[in-house]
Amino acid sequence: MAELLVSAPAKINLHLEVLGLRSDGFHELAMVMQMLDLADTLRLQPTADGSIRLRCDRSDLPTDGRNLIVRAAELLRARAGLPELGVAMELTKRIPIGAGLAGGSSNGAAALVGLNALWGCALSPEQLLALAAELGSDMPFCIAGGTQLCFGRGEVLEPVPLAQAPSLGVLLIKHPEASVSTPWAYGRCREQRQDFYLSDEADFEQRRQALRTGPLLTALGQGAPLPPLRNDLQPVVEPEVASVREGLALLRQADGALAVAMSGSGPSLFALFPSRAAAVAAHQQLDGALQAGGFEAWVCGCHQAGATLG
Ligand code: C5P
Hints:
There is one protein chain. This protein is 35% helix and 27% strand. By secondary structure, the protein is α+β, with helices and mostly antiparallel strands. The protein has 2 domains: 4-160, Ribosomal Protein S5, domain 2, CATH 3.30.230.10; 169-301, GHMP kinase, C-terminal domain (Alpha-Beta Plaits). The strands form 2 sheets. Strands 1, 2, 3, 4, 5, 6, 8 and 12 form an 8-stranded mixed sheet that branches. Strands 9-10-7-11 form a 4-stranded antiparallel sheet, with helices on one face. Helix 2 packs across helix 3. The protein starts with a strand and ends with a strand.
């Protein structure tokens, strides 16, 4: 087979609720994730030498076994039982790194989807999702995409019924010098909030049901006004990272913003608008202040797919 291109989109969290701590050390979560149309591109070329190679246009990203793309390729090849398979991969980054936008997870998801086709592994969608969950909590969502409820560690997916999110416009900002480690953010959350963590499955399920039937899902499903967004890592990260405080204050000044929040463990921040045009207008309105604060900014739309060939 000739070369393949795979698109690897970014996500934001419309809701991130930390329910408790699991016996495997991960947090039990209740989230709503939304795919964006801001995407990296992974180019795949088969090789006959049994090697797995990655190049990237960003020199600050590892291209060895620390990169989820390489780990995904190695895991898929091992499970397919075909050690002679090889690939040369080239990653073009557009998603900011270390930002809470699942850039790394989405790159790994793109490798699974692309190599399953390139190598003819013929894994079913369910098998690919299971492999993705072994590699990272956000990776199954990065394969499925769209608007989804994500439970468990983040890997248990339920599509949001009749989600109207695709019409929303998104203004995304990040300070280039800020980055937050996800394990650090969850560790701090545990230190600060563990006394309030739930521990019973019945309590977890009650919170999941509250999210399924709550105002955010009603807004996404029926076009009702968006409620304020909840991200339990935001009050953990905000006091520690000045650019998160400053960026949130800036986005709250945007005309027509429906909601403002941090994505994942940050430090990227976003404002939602009724349309892409309204997000463009808000970007123009805030441009001077964003530049003065040293922020990078992207206007995005919502995307209904995950990692996709082509
Ligand atoms: O699964 P992933 O590799 O993306 O997780 C990165 C880190 O984030 C984990 O090692 C853990 O510290 C934290 N995490 C967590 N609970 C989750 C997901 C991630 O504590 N549900």
